[in-house]
């Protein structure tokens, strides 16, 4: 899986004149992979970390124009992309099962749940929020396996 940071940068630059007039906002979808090393998908994680940093930097650049920019950083979300990953159906299920053991809430998110966060982030209710990475991951980033002593 490859992600190019050039696309969000180019789209942001093209949108700035319109967003200046409308006082609109920019929402990027990143990933919690930006904060977690994943040796099986290192370039995906690296590019998502770059998207997070792009958002922080552009928030500082765009704030004087009253343009907000934020990221949604979802965890495992049950989307068609999960089922179209490289590998057999059995391998994809094994990967999903592994991630579910790492998520304290023990389930993947539904895409509708992520859509609700995006709607909030775009709304006036979030008018004071810019340069933020909103992590919605079922607790994956706080997962801390414990070692039991007998």
Describe this entry's structure for a reader.
It is a single chain. With 150 residues, this protein is an alpha/beta fold. It has a single domain, classed as NAD(P)-binding Rossmann-like Domain (Rossmann fold, 3-Layer(aba) Sandwich). The chain is built from five helices and five strands. The chain has helices spanning 6-22, 42-62, 80-83, 89-102, 111-122, and strands at residues 25-29, 68-74, 77-78, 109-110, 133-136. Strand 1, helix 2 and strand 2 (68-74) form a beta-alpha-beta unit. Keywords: Oxidoreductase. Pfam families: adh_short_C2 (PF13561). One of its GO terms (molecular function) is oxidoreductase activity.
Task: Specify the CATH class.
Answer: Alpha Beta
> Major sheet: order of its strands?
1-2-5
Put simply, the count of helices is 5
CATH architecture: 3-Layer(aba) Sandwich
The count of β-strands is 5
Compute the CA-based radius of gyration: 17 Å
**Beta-strand residue percentage:** 5-15%
Distance between the termini: 43 Å
CATH superfamily: NAD(P)-binding Rossmann-like Domain
Give me the secondary-structure category.
alpha/beta
CATH-derived topology: Rossmann fold
Biggest sheet, open or closed, and with what strands and sense?
A: 3 strands, parallel
> Shape from CA axes?
elongated
Q: Provide the low-confidence segments as ranges.
A: none
* Count of folded domains: 1
Q: Can you give the helix content as a percent range?
A: 40-55%
GO molecular function: oxidoreductase activity
Keywords: Oxidoreductase
